[in-house]
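S1.2 Input.
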Amino acid sequence: MNPVQAPEPSMEKFNMGHITSVLLVLALAGILHACSFFHDESTSSKRVARAFDKYLYKEDIVDLIPMGTSAKDSAILVNRYLESWIKQQLVLNKAKLNLSEQEAIKHMEKQLEDYRSSLIIYAYKKELIKQKLDTAVSDMKINEYYNDNVDNLILKDDIIRVRYVKIPKAAPDLDSAKKWCASELDEDITALEEYCHQYAKSYLLTEKEWILFENLKLELGSGFDSNNQEFEPNMMLESEDSMHVYLVYVLDLIRKENPAPVEYEREKIRDIILNRRRSELILKMEASTYQEGISKNYFELYK
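S1.3 Output.
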């Protein structure tokens, strides 16, 4: 069985060049004063275009024109949209006529309905999570998860906590910066922060933050051991290149294949806990909805 060919539209009716001219005139005339055009209740139902038995109205294109758009640009935007809409309707009609099996159309309609249902359910679940999900995750919950799963939280790379400073060689008082970097006194750390704000090219003084050692190496000069064997806790290291001095005070270091510290995994654990809560919230909603359906006779099964 050969596909049914759609009748070709009359060129007199659907010549796109003719449509373009007509639509351009329509757009220029109607959008010269864009605000009044789109808010005039008396013209809100006026037809703008037709393709077969489908119509496009002025209110359908009201959001196309941003406020303050010139008449010329407004006309271009509207014209492009109308031309695109007409072409879409023509191709859609031809597609329907050329689909030889009605079952194919029914199948697509079923798919569209399923997709629409999925979107509605997704929107509802998203709003439910927004309103009902408890997003507060205490340190106790994080530590509890960590202790229960520490054997699964093994490092794949070395991680390190450091004070790191990259200073131009021309910066003043480098000896003081070196002393402050290795100090444990609060006033020295404060002095180092102020010094870095003024002179450092880059620095990291967040002492509780674990970082990948590989990321630190990207910042360091070539004078450091690339295999990180010289890095040990409570060790002060210094290197330089032609432009900068690099200071690193090692606070702590954990080698790969050891358990990650809880601080390093904190955000990951928090996300896992929240994902569990999301799943539990959705399952609880689905179960209660099902029980409501039973109690109120919303559905029945036929044998």
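S1.4 Remarks. The chain has a mean pLDDT of 83.
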